[in-house]
Amino acid sequence: MMQSLYSHSHLFGGNAPFIEDLYEQYLADPTVVSPEWRDYFDKLSTAPGAADRDVAHQPIQESFIQLAKRPPVASRSSAAADWESMQKQVAVLKLISAYRVLGSRQANLDPLKRMDQATLRELDHATHGLTDADMAVQFNVGSLVAPQKLPLSEIIARLKQTYCGNIGVEYMHITNSEEKHWVQKRFEGDLSTPHYNADKKKHIFKQITAAETLERYLHTKYVGQKRFSLEGGESAIAALDHLIQNATAVGVEELIIGMAHRGRLNVLVNTLGKQPRDLFAEFEGKAAQELASGDVKYHMGFSSDIPTANGPMHVSLAFNPSHLEIVNPVVEGSVRARQDRRKDSKRIQAVPVLIHGDSAFGGLGVNQGTFNLSQTRGYGTGGTLHIVINNQVGFTTSDTRDMRSTLYCTDVAKMIEAPIFHVNGDDPEAVCYVMQAALDFRMKFNKDVVIDLVCYRKLGHNEGDDPFLTQPMMYKKIAKHGGVRAMYAERLVGEGVLTAAEADNFIQAYRDALDKGEHVEQTVLSNYRREHALDWSQYQGTHWAHPTDTSLPHADIQRLAEKFTSVPENYKLHPTVKRVQDARRAMAAGEQAMDWGMAETLAYASLVTNGYGVRISGEDSGRGTFSHRHAVVHDQNRERWDQGTYVPLRNMSDNQADFLVIDSILNEEAVLAYEYGYACSAPDQLVIWEAQFGDFANGAQVAIDQFISSGETKWGRLCGLTTILPHGYDGQGPEHSSARLERWLQLCAEHNMQIVMPSEASQMFHVLRRQVLRPFRKPLVIFLSKRLLRYKDAMSPLEDFTSHSFRPVIGDAGISDAKAVKRVILCSGQVYYDLVNGRKERELDSEVAIIRVEQLYPFPTEQLQAELARFSHVKEIMWVQEEPRNQGAWYQIRHRLEALLGAKQTLLFAGRPSSASPAVGYMSKHVAQLKGFIEEAMSVNK
Fold first, then answer.
1. Is the CB of residue 330 less than 8 Å from the CB of residue 717?
2. Residue 471: CA atoms inside 13 Å, Cβ hemisphere, count?
């Protein structure tokens, strides 16, 4: 047949792209094409001159061009028959390809069978020119995982079973051939059909029974209370159990789970082994109230150690607020920190598992941001297992035209070419099967995998909601649905695995255990001490003012500076960077004052050489947004990124801690949440996120509100994350001036955060070191002036680094005669220098004292009180800020200042007038406002 085939020009017509694609498959793996084609391509590859050309395309193209020029063979009838046969063969291969691409759309995925599936003509053999008469004809199956030749009827049957059964596979969007062929071989080889023994099936059934019985037990015991039932999606519990029990066999030791509300209580009890009696106490309001505020039961996290056949598995369920998917980057950050702590460079010991809702998965942008992080150097965790609990209704929207603009809720995952396994939730064996496939793919390729568990939601959005109000027809179907457990029980009884009585006994045994408040299915290890567990006890009960020496001997400063200002031999620095490095050496020698870039670098160098890791991320963090940091330098004569970059702080000593600086993706929400998660699992590191401009934190407000400010009071989670927010009024308009200081201060209570606005370079050095050296782990927010980075008066002498620590309040050292002072000005940040210049211009140096409040929260009451005591006779105490009156610190700290005043003292204010905008956009107006409030601040009666 092939000899005749080669004689015809038809192949260089409409089928040429197919042949060329077949040739590319041959080049990637010769075994995937039929022997006839393999033999032909083998001959092509040895043709004269073939080695000198583009082997992927040119030889085959030219070969078919030459074939097209050949005259037809004598026997036209034989040629026609051969041509028809070849056309049929090509049609079969096209049909196979169509099932691989589109088969999931015809899969039996919906347990409710609500929608009529439109027939896809691409999956109809007749579309490809195949007839019923061809059903018994043997065809070559090409790369289909099957015997080399099969009748067309059997080929179609295998394709339907593989791609159109209870599992639908999407993977043809993957461009990596190895990944694509792996999925192809896995599912086509198994015909997407699990083969479990009786014991495994019984175990799955017990998991399904536990999931359903717990929900129904809670529904009758705690009528009307919210719990966000998992009923309809019980197979998720079987899938998680399968994952836990099998992941240890491939080296996984920790699974960190992030999920929203639906099914959360079920996961807590049936997956993590939380005592039912503890859950009941929460329902009844009798739970121990150990936290300042606490949280509702379906937000709470939990962790346990679960025995498996291959050793213990530590499983953690992250605390989660109502903002659904925001927990996802938090989990990723926590996993990355755990992997780094274990020195797990292969990223196999700790694995993230994210459980999503269908609407939230495609609807919330934080998922796009999290996917975008997944394959980057600074944020990758080696792949995440995603499970979408797809109840086909989302919140209250059952019409997909209103829910999303894509066919599947999982389409967003295609942006990183993740394979997507759709599965019918009514088939728990299929669900476990795709879970195993997802685990195996993740462990082999270190890449995300998505399981779309198509199910339904038996009750409303919550237990007080009537779903018939918005989805009457769907809920009529649900009312008639027997449930996953009942259907699976019937199936197992039919297979002879269980009797009906045994199936019912599982329910009763589970309910009896619940009545006693005992563990039900999941056994947990007690008194088990993990090797890599963190000890937070040293950070408990400490105070922000814990005395900590953050100074550094001059000899150490010189030694460190010598290291971080050095580069490899023959390394050509940019002239600007060379000047910076030269200046830093002079600063270390005490020849000139230290600027902010030097102060910051010195802090990092001192930490990493003493065993404290440093991690900095943000947009343009390597260089620094304002070109002040230069933590990464670039050889001006080398083009390749991996060869031309050098990070001095990674080369301080042979046994130093890690220093990692990351130019992050252009996203604040996912990145800040990620760094929060990392810091929560790395208390011994300085973890920093910086905004390119302070107001960019607006895009991450949910992470600030839900985690950074309230994670401790809600969940008892300590976190030492440092956030650097450029802030300062320099006439750059509304979006590049304010980091919204007032918002941060409004969130402050119960010593939950630290808010500082340093005015000197040495203060930056000390506050960064204090954050790690002091046994106190609360978020630190630094409002950093852009102007002061190079402002000469804000530089610090060497002795401020060798003898001081961070000063929450800086008094006016220039006042020699306190009795002569007529007004005391309090301020924070760069406005201090505007005030000093204004005082000097008006010759009021002895009459106006200026005190800097460098830490705005926790408010340094005692320190400020001590400074004000020098001026007890002064009647006018004035707070001055450069922000508008309704913004900045004024309204948040006014009551604290008033509490420090004497009986005859008055508190005044000077600043820009109240404004709906953070700042003006006209330079002339900016300057006029600055002059106005400086004049007001200096209007002292002579």
1. no
2. 26
12 or 788: whose pLDDT is higher? 788
Distance CA 243, CA 255 (A): 9
Q: How far apart are CA 505 and CA 152, in angstroms?
A: 47
Residues forming the active site:
8
Asked if pLDDT for residue 58 goes beyond 80, the answer is: no
Closest CA to 228 of 287, 268, 275: 268
User: What confidence tier does 835 reach under pLDDT thresholds 50, 70, 90?
Assistant: very high
Read off the pLDDT of residues 177-212 as tens digits, 9 standing for 90 and up: 999 999 999 999 999 999 999 999 999 999 999 999
Q: How many CB atoms lie within 10 A of CB 154?
A: 17
Tell me how far apart the alpha carbons of residues 552 and 401 are, in angstroms, rounded to a whole number: 63
Of the candidates 299, 334, 328, which has an alpha carbon nearest to the alpha carbon of residue 315?
334
Q: Check the CA dihedral 717-718-722-727 and report its sign.
A: positive
Take residue 795 and report the two structure tokens written for it.
Answer: 């530089």
The closest alpha carbon to 522, from 775, 268, 763, belongs to 268
Name the residue with higher pLDDT: 734 or 40.
734
Structure tokens, 120: 């896809």
Evaluate the omega torsion of the peptide bond into residue 858 and state whether it is cis, within 30 degrees of 0. Answer: yes
What is the rounded CA–CA span in Å between residue 783 and residue 724?
6
Q: Rounded mean pLDDT of the chain?
A: 89
Residue-level pLDDT at 54 = 46
What lies within 8 Å, CB to CB, of 904 at 6+ separation is 875
Q: pTM score, two decimals?
A: 0.90
Q: What tokens does 753 get?
A: 């955060």
Could you give the strand order of the β-sheet that contains 823-827, starting from the edge strand earlier in sequence? 809-810, 848-853, 823-827, 876-884, 906-912
H-helix or E-strand spanning residue 783: strand 780-784
Helices (H) and strands (E) in the chain, counts: 33, 24
Lowest-confidence segment of 478-492, 523-537, 615-629 by average pLDDT: 523-537
Helices 198-221, 484-495: axis angle to 10 degrees equals 150
**What are residue 305's DSSP bridge partners?**
314
Distance CA 269, CA 513 (A): 12
Return the exposure string of 118-149: e unless at least 16 CB atoms fall within 10 Å of the residue's CB, then b. eeeebbebeebebeeebeebebbbbbbbbeee
Q: How many CB atoms lie within 10 A of CB 180?
A: 18
State mean pLDDT over 580-601.
96
In this prediction, what percent of the chain has a pLDDT beyond 90? 68
Residue 37: predicted pLDDT:
74
> For the chain, which domains are there?
2-103+134-190 (no CATH), 198-515 (3.40.50.970), 554-802 (3.40.50.12470), 810-937 (3.40.50.11610)
Q: How many CA atoms lie within 13 A of 478 on its CB side?
A: 19
Q: Look up residue 18 and give its two tokens.
A: 């197919």
Evaluate whether 791 touches 819 at the Cβ level (below 8 Å).
no
Q: What are phi and psi of 172, to 5 degrees?
A: -75, -5
Provide the pLDDT for residue 223: 74
Q: Closest Cα to residue 355, out of 257, 273, 211, 255?
A: 257
The listed range with the strongest mean pLDDT (386-390, 393-397, 536-540) is 386-390
The confidence band for 60, taking pLDDT boundaries of 50, 70 and 90, is low
Predicted confidence band of residue 942 (pLDDT cuts 50, 70, 90): low
The set of residues, in sequence order, having a beta carbon less than 8 Å from that of 135 and lying 6+ positions away, is 151, 152, 153
